[in-house]
Specification:
By secondary structure, this protein is α/β, with parallel strands linked by helices. Helix content is 35%, strand content 19%. Strand 4, helix 3 and strand 5 form a beta-alpha-beta unit.
């Protein structure tokens, strides 16, 4: 496995903006039972539009029910690689709007066609509804590649958090069905298991030189919500199913996956399970590039135009998709 560490000078300490974020979260934390609609309404982070080239953005419905939003710069004439983008939101929230600016930035920075997918949300539509929507969008993109100026041999799936999980499971489904539409897979701090595992929520494995109390409170708060999220998403299906928890995938199935980029913040609550999956995929023979963004917490990809590391993450993604030599930024 290729393993790179960004912002090494900050290793062991939160980014100052992350400190502000966690302090605000701690002050606003309550003890009331979670309300689904309130949780959905609260999703999204401050961000700015950093794209510079003229771009066409259009919405479309595919397969009669799946909404997608397509981004492409007007001066990208040759067949481009395409990114099927799957938003985060714990499987129960998130939207096309929440990832609007990251999708614009990816299309602009990479000369890519980006297709963002508005997949089914739990608990109203639990597993496998979201996964089937994502695979339907992948199949549609492959079959209509010429129509949209896309190179069908360079289709990539990417997603953050729950969307990262769906990126991995869409890739596993692509392999299982023998379609092999995907050329690469990108996971931004993906949830790789929804099964409780004490080793993967051990705050002692997050060494910190400062703000340890703040970090531990943040991690434990996140971990406390994971059971509810798993219940909403999995429904009646065992969370050990590899298309829910790819950490449980058979090594022979993993071995058929295309090259993979896994990105995670140093203090992301999912970091331990991302690392565990990266190690497992590497042992199965997958070409894995794993990047840890020091000082970062969960969901930092959303903060494009606000956090410098977010643009670095997107540029790293473009380099990976295009097979460019890795550069420490």
């Amino acid at each position: 496995m290729n393993d790179y560490v960004q912002y090494a000078a900050q290793a062991g300490a939160l980014d100052p903006q992350a400190v502000d974020e966690l302090q605000a979260m701690a002050q606003g934390a309550g003890h009331e039972a979670p309300d689904l609609l309130a949780l959905r309404d609260a999703m999204g982070w401050p961000a700015r539009d950093i794209h510079t080239r003229r771009m066409t953005i259009r919405n479309q419905i595919i397969d009669g029910h799946v909404n997608v939003r397509i981004y492409r710069c007007d001066d990208d004439n040759a067949p481009t690689p395409a990114v099927l983008f799957l938003h985060g939101g714990g499987f129960f929230g998130g939207s096309l709007d929440n990832v609007e600016y990251p999708c614009r930035a990816l299309a602009d920075l990479g000369a890519l066609t980006v297709v963002s997918v508005d997949y089914a949300l739990a608990p109203e539509r639990p597993y496998p509804a979201a996964l089937l929507d994502c695979y339907a969008a992948l199949r549609w993109l492959y079959l209509h590649a010429d129509e949209y100026g896309v190179d069908p041999q360079r289709i990539v799936v990417a997603g953050d958090s729950a969307g990262g999980n769906l990126s991995l499971t869409t890739a596993l489904l692509d392999v299982t069905l023998g379609t092999h539409y995907l050329s690469r897979v990108v996971g931004y701090y993906p949830a790789t298991t929804l099964v409780p595992d004490d080793e993967l929520i051990d705050t002692a494995r997050y060494p910190a030189t400062a703000d340890k109390t703040l970090i531990d409170g943040y991690l434990n708060g996140f971990y406390g919500s994971m059971g509810q999220v798993a219940q909403w998403y999995a429904g009646k299906t065992d969370c050990r199913h590899p298309l829910i928890s790819p950490l449980y995938a058979d090594p022979a199935l993993l071995a058929a996956l295309p090259p993979m980029l896994l990105c995670c913040g140093e203090f992301d609550p999912l970091r331990l399970q991302v690392d565990a999956f990266a190690d497992q995929a590497r042992r199965a023979g997958v070409d894995v590039t794993s990047v840890r963004y020091c000082g970062m917490v969960h969901a930092f990809m959303d903060k494009v135009g606000v956090l410098a590391q977010t643009e670095t993450l997107l540029r790293d993604t473009v380099a990976f998709i295009r097979g460019e030599p890795w550069v420490q930024r």
